Amino acid sequence: MAYINVIDEYKRYHMGDTTIAANDGISFSVEKGEVAVILGPSGAGKSTVLNILGGMDSCDEGEIVIDGTDIAKYNEKQLTTYRRNDVGFVFQFYNLVPNLTAKENVELASQIVSDALDPEDVLKSVGLSERLDNFPAQLSGGEQQRVTIARAIAKRPKLLLCDEPTGALDYETGKQILTILQDTAHNTGTTVLIITHNSAIAPMADRVIRINDAKVRNVTINDEPKPVAEIEW
Ligand code: ADP
Ligand code: ADP
């Protein structure tokens, strides 16, 4: 069985008399250590899938099997443990703690899990060894996003969930961020999921899951994903 198996997942939102099917029977799988890009236009249902995979929201029906365990069956307490121990989050707008330095932000990981990576080592691996003592406001957008990634991977998560991680960045900086995400997956075995509406980044992924109108329309497997440096958008 694949590392992640989303099986016939449904999520509906009720607004007065209307029901919105945000996910309408979604199924896909992702192998360990892959970069999977979930691609689709705004409103397609991507964030809903990501929130469910991250244990931030629950589905109405279906199985969400991660590393052999169906997290759809978890209670609130189990979901909290899962979010804290197994998932790293990277959002479009870096949610760093403003009054903590880069290093202190990454050190937060060790308050969540007991076997967190050394903050200086992780910050070095994302190219920020010169920025350890800077506060977020003293860092560029790309540097802040790298701190966010460092904090997320310091927990050694099974899954790294990324919501439009380059959305707020310029082109070259965005490329650096995607390179870090690709290297993280391929060098550490962390499974990376990126949701985006930008189809041009698809060649960097091992797997591309196209979602539209709440359904999976197409899944492509790239046997030889391109290094981020070799793609343009
Ligand atoms: P995407 O991430 O692809 O833009 P979303 O998963 O955010 O799509 O949304 C899918 C659909 O579900 C949209 O029609 C959206 O308006 C609706 N939706 C998302 N979250 C909520 C919510 N909390 N309440 C009501 N409708 C929602
Ligand atoms: P806490 O017990 O501190 O409330 P949570 O279980 O909410 O922790 O979150 C655990 C981890 O998941 C933290 O690293 C947190 O940053 C991340 N996380 C969970 N939900 C969200 C969210 N909605 N936005 C940003 N990060 C989140």
Automatic annotation (TrEMBL):
Q: Does the keyword Cytoplasm apply?
A: no
Name the InterPro entries for this protein: AAA+_ATPase, ABC_transporter-like_ATP-bd, ABC_transporter-like_CS, MacB-like_ATP-bd, P-loop_NTPase
Q: Which UniProt keywords apply?
A: ATP-binding, Nucleotide-binding, Transport
Report the residue ranges that make up the ABC transporter domain in this protein. 4-233
Q: Can you tell which superkingdom this protein's organism belongs to?
A: Eukaryota
Sorted alphabetically, which Pfam families does this protein's record hold?
A: ABC_tran
Look up keyword Transport and say if it applies.
Answer: yes
Q: Name one GO cellular component term.
A: membrane protein complex
**Could you tell me what this protein is called?**
ABC transporter domain-containing protein
Enumerate the SMART domains for this protein. AAA
Q: Which family does it belong to?
A: Belongs to the ABC transporter superfamily.
Q: What is the lineage of its organism?
A: Eukaryota, Metazoa, Ecdysozoa, Arthropoda, Hexapoda
- Transmembrane annotation, as ranges: none
Give any GO molecular function from the UniProt entry.
Answer: ATP hydrolysis activity
